[in-house]
Amino acid sequence: MLKKPLVILTSLTGLLVIAAIALMNGAVEIDLMNPTPIQKEILLSVRAPRVLLAGLVGASLAFSGALFQYVMKNPLADSFTTGVSSSSAMGAVLAIMAGVVGLIPFFSLTSGLIGLYAVYRISSVKGSVRPITMLLAGIVIHTFAAAVISLMKFLSDDSVSSIIFWLMGGFQAASLTNTLIMAITLLFSILVLYREFLSLDIISFDDTTAVSSGVDVNKLRRKVFFIAALLTAISVGYAGIIGFVGLIIPHLARMLRLIKASDLIPVSLLFGAAFMISSDLVARTALSDGRELSVGIITSFVGGLFFLYLLIKRKRELDYFD
Questions:
Q1: What CATH number was assigned to the domain covering residues 3-318?
Q2: Is the pLDDT assigned to residue 66 strictly greater than 80?
Q3: What are phi and psi of 57, to 5 degrees?
Q4: Between the ranges 154-163, 221-230, 266-275, 282-291, where is the mean pLDDT highest?
Q5: Which of 125, 114, 79, 54 is nearest to 231 (CA)?
Q6: What is the pTM of this model?
Q7: How many whole angstroms from its chain centre is CA 43?
């Protein structure tokens, strides 16, 4: 009974420490206890919005990844394998090409929801959706969206560098406004699904058991898919494509023996925020000449190593032909 509160308290403490370190460090080091007027301006106008947005995006992507994995009963399901990230990015790239950069989140959300609807319709048979079919449909949509993005990059000579830079992911455009919108979106998503945590536990085992337990499986899946797509699309709209967070973080939480949604999701939110703030800090400080790495590079590097570790550790479980 003490394990969950202890893990949450430790995670929250770690998150606060990481956030404080991220606020202090960067191109200009800041003394949080006694900042100069210039440091105070940098802290309030640049550093704080960026750290807050990074934490919120990390928590949102971790939340969406956990949701996809629960309803699809697949630990490899996330916004990438369901096609939501790519379809959201397609809308954002269209906004960049059209010169309406301020509308990137709107285009991203619209395109992401259209992509999810397409995946749902492709995989739906008589109103019922099988998780494996939806995963395959998501891969199809992801491939299609990636091809369209490549075509738009080829046709857009003037803005191709902006598109590539944005697609790599980052928080350079962080502001108090988009931080507030991201926070409201995340809070709304948590409130909508808070009462469904037990249903998520039930549906992750077997649809028949879930139905016999009184869970409306198709309605729950639609609700979860919409919330997960909303979180992903808004995150993509403000930060570009940042991969592996929705895969890595729920796995880390499960390694602590957190299985129930009421345990795993809160810890995933904290882990996701801490991981993203740390990744952004590395991206900002890794190079000594003032340039910044893409956050997407950092998360992909860590994610690749993490899944290589999982593959080596569990390769016997994956060998189906012996």
A1: 1.10.3470.10
A2: yes
A3: -65, -45
A4: 266-275
A5: 79
A6: 0.91
A7: 25
